[in-house]
């Protein structure tokens, strides 16, 4: 076919479509609604389940993770002694180790910041072998326990705080109150091997022969003649001999392996990822069936013209070209509108996604891959629709001489296919709306559950005191007392308190000896004097901590009702809880009071032991948690971050204030994740409703147009407008009812599958399913209402018109 013919067909088709743009706009809207969510979700799902070649180091296929693994992709840290055994393995060109990330206080300007840092040994960067943006790797002297204090900063930290200046090398940072010299800047493509965005690298400074266990992760670069399997076998043998020499045999539970480092960079999608994948697939099928149905109905509306062209010898390619011309215009309109909607949606969700690390993502934005996904999806869907419509037009050409082929009601086969597609849309829409209702109810129940705390007018923040400045719990308690004293001078503060854990964090366990001789490992929280009052946690029996408990060193404790019931048969007062005898720790704690239960939203109340902040039985401060402060404000008063920072720096100038969170933000990470997931799937459910409604409306509209003469005959024979209205309403709601039944079963099965890994989600919720049915039926009624009213208004005189229908 000549280019001129192609351009002429394209121009004529576009001109005819734009003169009556209803079909193009409606189909483009259907495509836009699908692309608005499908492209971003498909991109996130693929990136979270497929192995990504994101490791930009030289020869990344030679880099390996070495260590114990209890399942593929699930690794366990090693001790310094174990790392020393691995360093001499044959087949290794170089090896390095890093610790788990932590936060440090950094003073760049006037205000200290809390940033993520990671400690690495001198071999870590050499093993990755990535060229530095500026400066150099750590030296052997700098990795010595008594070496000079140096730091390597990330590329982003360099740009943000130093403007990309090349004179940054040699400048000093204050890290945890200690002057530290910058010796290097990481490249922009430096791989993120942890879940946090690392901004500083510090020397490991591990002394040879160090006896204490250190949480290390080892990476190695293999030489050219060694495979991962060989290195893993060597590591397993070496560690078996090492553990046997020490009389330990637990190594058999977690064998040492050597696996490609890129595998450890693959985010785990898990059950949530599979749910999103199924949802994206359902939305794609719904969009596709809608567009295909609309293009098929378009072919039915123009069946007279298409059939004549087919009968006069127009080739299938010529008919297909006309349909493809419409499809190309739909792609242009639908993709443009859909990608614009995607960009707005991602901007709306960006901060929330980054704050909770949704599906392993630290940020979201419209990317080139999303644009390519959207265009490919749109081209595929419209091509299928064009081919289906052209095939039906070609079939009608064979019956061009018959009255039915030209003027009769509907193309029977096309009508059946359209109704099947409506049923498919109803099934998919019911599934999506049903699971979104289940998630919405789970999020609502969790957010509005009675947690036992009263956090109205309560604001929280935390600081991270460095070990060098605050070496024991006594110094931490004194710091907490000084900070709480200064915070009371902020206007509007009612009470304030401190704890070593965040409000809803009850995961820091300690093993106590019970009066009956058994042991119980429970959550232990060290609190300041006004903690219970600040969170309005009631005291059921006994007394709260008093002034003497904090200043005279009395070995006392409070327990919650769950602890008293489970371990002490509700007879807790006066009982003694034994502790592990260690230097500076009491041998036992006497229970002086029982508090009410409190728990994180959506979770059950677990046993908790409260101790005065300086008398924590645990042997060492938990520096990774820091100190968490609560401010209960008078109604109407709001503290500012600037005022809180000023008060903290009066006491401890080197400490950074991480965040000042309002009451609405004091929820668990799982609840925040559930809320975002609920919002995403609710958006998909809303799009599904719109798409299903559009599809049903289009089918019924074309059906009524094709059956106009039939309705005229019915009216002439005595059918009332009400009867005609009910006829179309039943015809429209019948496929919807079939889809509701099948879709409800699928939604329940999805809910039952998701029940195991989503907080507060019930596998089957009658109220959620009833609401789903009401919403879908209302959508179907509204979609059928217009065509039904038009049928009811059909005049009997239409039956006298030969061209009707």
From TrEMBL:
Matches recorded under InterPro entries: ABC3_permease_C (IPR003838), MacB_PCD (IPR025857), Macrolide_Exporter_MacB (IPR050250)
Primary location group: membrane
The MacB-like periplasmic core domain, residue ranges: 25-230, 439-640
Topology in membrane: Multi-pass membrane protein
Record domain ABC3 transporter permease C-terminal: where: 279-395, 684-796
One Pfam family linked to the record: FtsX
Compartment list: Cell membrane
GO molecular function term, any single one: transmembrane transporter activity
UniProt keywords, alphabetically: Cell membrane, Membrane, Transmembrane, Transmembrane helix
GO CC list: plasma membrane
Domain of life per record: Bacteria
Membrane spanning stretches: 272-296, 317-341, 361-387, 420-440, 670-699, 736-758, 770-789
Protein name (database record): Permease
């Amino acid at each position: 076919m000549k280019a001129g013919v192609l351009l002429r067909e394209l121009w004529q088709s576009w001109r005819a479509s734009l003169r009556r743009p209803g079909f193009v706009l409606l189909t483009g809207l259907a495509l836009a609604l699908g692309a608005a969510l499908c492209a971003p979700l498909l991109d996130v799902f693929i990136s979270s389940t497929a192995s990504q070649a994101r490791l930009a180091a030289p020869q990344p296929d030679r880099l390996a993770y070495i260590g114990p693994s209890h399942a593929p992709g699930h690794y366990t840290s090693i001790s310094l002694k174990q790392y020393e055994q691995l360093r001499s393995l044959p087949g290794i060109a170089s090896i390095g180790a890093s610790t788990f990330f932590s936060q440090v206080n950094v003073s760049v300007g006037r205000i200290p910041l809390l940033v993520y840092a990671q400690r690495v040994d001198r071999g870590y960067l050499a093993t990755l072998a990535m060229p530095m943006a500026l400066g150099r790797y750590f030296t052997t002297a700098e990795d010595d326990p008594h070496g000079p204090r140096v730091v390597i900063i990330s590329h982003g930290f360099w740009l943000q705080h130093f403007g990309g200046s090349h004179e940054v090398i040699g400048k000093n940072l204050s890290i945890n109150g200690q002057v530290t010299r910058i010796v290097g800047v990481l490249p922009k493509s430096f791989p993120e091997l942890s879940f946090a965005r690392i901004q500083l690298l510090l020397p490991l400074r591990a002394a040879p022969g160090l006896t204490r266990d250190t949480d290390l992760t080892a990476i190695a670069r293999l030489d050219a003649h060694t495979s991962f399997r060989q290195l893993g076998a060597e590591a397993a043998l070496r560690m078996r001999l090492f553990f046997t020499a020490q009389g330990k045999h637990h190594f058999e539970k977690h064998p040492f392996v050597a696996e490609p480092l890129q595998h450890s960079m693959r985010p785990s999608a898990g059950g949530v990822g599979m749910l999103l994948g199924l949802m994206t697939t359902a939305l794609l099928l719904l969009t596709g069936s809608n567009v295909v149905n609309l293009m098929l109905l378009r072919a039915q509306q123009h069946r007279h013209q298409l059939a004549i062209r087919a009968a006069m010898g127009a080739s299938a390619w010529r008919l297909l070209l006309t349909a493809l011309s419409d499809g190309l215009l739909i792609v242009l309109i639908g993709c443009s509108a859909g990608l614009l909607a995607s960009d707005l949606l991602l901007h709306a969700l960006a901060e929330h996604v980054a704050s909770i690390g949704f599906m392993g993502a630290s940020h979201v934005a419209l990317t080139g891959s999303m644009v390519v996904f959207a265009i490919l999806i749109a081209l595929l869907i419209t091509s299928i629709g064009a081919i289906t419509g052209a095939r039906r037009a070609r079939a009608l050409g064979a019956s061009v001489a018959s009255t039915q082929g030209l003027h009769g009601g509907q193309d029977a086969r096309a009508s059946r296919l359209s109704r099947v597609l409506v049923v498919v849309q109803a099934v998919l829409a019911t599934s999506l709306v049903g699971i979104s209702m289940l998630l919405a109810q789970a999020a609502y129940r969790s957010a509005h559950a009675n947690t036992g705390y009263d956090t109205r007018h309560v604001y929280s923040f935390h600081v991270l005191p460095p070990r060098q400045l605050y070496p024991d719990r006594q110094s931490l308690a004194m710091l907490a007392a000084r900070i709480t004293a200064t915070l009371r001078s902020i206007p509007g503060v009612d009470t304030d308190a401190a704890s070593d854990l965040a409000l809803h964090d009850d995961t820091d366990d300690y093993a106590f000896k019970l009066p009956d001789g058994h042991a119980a490992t429970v959550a232990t929280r060290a609190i300041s004097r006004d903690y219970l009052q600040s969170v309005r946690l009631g005291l059921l029996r006994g007394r709260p901590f008093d002034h003497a408990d904090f200043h005279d060193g009395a070995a006392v404790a409070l327990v919650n009702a769950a602890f008293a019931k489970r371990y002490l048969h509700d007879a807790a007062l006066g009982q003694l809880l034994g502790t592990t005898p260690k230097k500076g720790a009491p041998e036992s704690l006497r229970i002086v009071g029982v508090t009410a239960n409190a728990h994180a939203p959506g979770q059950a109340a677990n046993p908790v032991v409260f101790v005065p902040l300086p008398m924590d039985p645990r042997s060492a401060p938990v520096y990774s948690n820091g100190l968490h402060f609560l401010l209960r404000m008078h109604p109407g008063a709001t503290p500012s971050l600037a005022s809180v920072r000023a008060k903290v720096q009066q006491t401890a100038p080197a400490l950074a204030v991480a965040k000042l969170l309002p009451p609405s933000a004091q929820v668990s990470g799982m609840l925040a994740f559930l809320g975002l997931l609920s919002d995403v799937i609710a958006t998909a459910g809303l799009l599904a409703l719109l798409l299903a409604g559009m599809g049903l409306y289009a089918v019924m509209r074309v059906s009524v147009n094709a059956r106009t003469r039939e309705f005229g005959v019915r009216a002439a024979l005595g059918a009332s407008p009400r009867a005609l209205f009910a006829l179309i309403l039943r015809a429209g709601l019948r496929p919807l009812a079939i889809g509701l039944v099948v879709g409800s079963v699928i939604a329940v099965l999805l809910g039952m599958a998701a029940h195991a890994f989503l907080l507060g989600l019930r596998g089957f919720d009658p109220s959620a399913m009833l609401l789903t049915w009401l919403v879908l039926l209302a959508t179907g009624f509204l979609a059928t209402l217009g065509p039904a009213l038009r049928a009811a208004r059909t005049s009997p005189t239409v039956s006298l018109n030969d061209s009707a229908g």
